[in-house]
Amino acid sequence: MTWVEDVSAARDAGAVFFDFLTAVDLEDEGFELVCRLWDPVEHTEHLLTTRCPRDDPRVPTLTGVFAGASWHERAVAELFGIGFEGHDTARLLLSEGFEGHPLRKDFVLTARETKRWPGAKEPGESDADLAVPRRRRARPLGARDWPVASAPAGPADVHLSGRKGGAGE
Amino acid sequence: MTYDVPESSRGIIALDENACTSCMLCARECPDWCIDIDSHKETVQEPGARPKVVHVLDRFAIDFGLCMWCGICIEVCPFDALFWAPTFDHAAADPAGMVHERFDLRQWLQDVPPGTP
User: Fold this and answer.
1) Residue B20 · residue B60 · CB < 8 Å
2) pTM, full prediction
């Protein structure tokens, strides 16, 4: 069954309440679309998923099944860069001229690049001690080997170059 | 400003400096990276004991402009140095004013309801 047929079938089977539609960035495995429906009589939830490849992220629109999916698809379109066939996904949340898709995992968070991780200091150390090279410095949990677009000057350089070495935890 | 809020409200995070050992656990666990700690080492010599290296806290600041009130720092603190206080009137006119240093964090300790674990 196709994505649209799947969701229609669930709706026809009683899951008539469209809760939300979102996506998950699975990186090399593409994107996973997640749609949650609710059956208000049986009190059961229906989680439906589908995948699309990263190099051609397109899925058919669900707006024909649930008109309310429109905003969700517009949000997913701009936050994940996924196209919805048959739906003109105009901007919904991001400002005019915003570049990139901020919920993709390869999107560099400016907040993470402009602020140095405060946990890099060992107990008994202050900012000045970060300039002293250490064989092994603590790295933020879950921090990724992000492409460092513009490393800020100053002590942050120490931290950023220290983080490049591994792929995180 | 006065306004009735429950004692257990998550208003602000208070710091007991005497309990803090500058272990950095809160700063490292904070998902928002909003806790900044500076400390240095000092050698303490007590009579009849071997010299002991202790960490002395120099700076403890929480940027409440970044904080999301998750309370992970309070949960993770092994020395019970961080507490929720119900104080809420700490708005600021600019983002820099949301950074509260140890002096403020210590002041709020007196607002922590008695018996808070």
Assistant:
1) yes
2) 0.64
